[in-house]
Design goal:
mainly beta
Length: 257
Amino acid sequence: MQQLKTWIVILSAAWLATGCGARKLTATGEVDSRMTAKNVVRYHMSGTPDFKTLSGRLAIDYSDAENNQSVTVSLRMKRDEVIWLSAPLGVVKVLITPNRVSYYNKLQNEFFDGDFTYIRELLGSEIDFNNLQNLLLGQAVHDLRGQKYHLSVDGEVYELKPEANPWIYKLLYEIEPRNFRLASQQLSQPEFKRLMHVRYPSYQEVDGRIVPERLYIAAIEKEERVTIGITYRQVELNRELNFPYKIPKGFNQISAK
């Protein structure tokens, strides 16, 4: 079961879209004390990267209390619909859609096939497919429009906190001033000692789109901590893709418990 957890967390972290011919960007802009929360939200939302599909290879470093792993995996994604992840030679594959989370491992002859509830339990938040997609594209996990926010300046970033929080977790967004992309975002449930902190240390321009270049996730629940870092390689946008996935016969089904 630990390996299933490892691969699902890796899958969740692997959702970022980058592309060929990328140009690295650094956030060298300066914060403006006259900026309003409404304008920060507007500038951030207007920069949502637009694409249909992506494919590429991801070098992923994963660490928890029991494991330290470095893997390179193939990634294929159709935006808003499906994401597919495969280890070399297809020994492990993962498929996720808005309604399904599925995994199989040929080395251990086992599989898991369930719904998005497992992702929610694993990440410690009532997060859905769209929330996760936003989080991993460098967008605020929730659409910022329609809410009021407290705006402050923390060093070189704008800091946004909801004035009224309709969600079951607390939210904090830090937005860099050059491109109004996320510097970090944080989801927490202090009463359950749960925290997810996502940092975006650098961005790049890809076919006119500004997308993250690197991503780091720290997911903490009580005394357990998972950290993930990702490097993107050979990634292409808007190719025609297929998503081959079939659970082999005779494999043992495992539970998410």
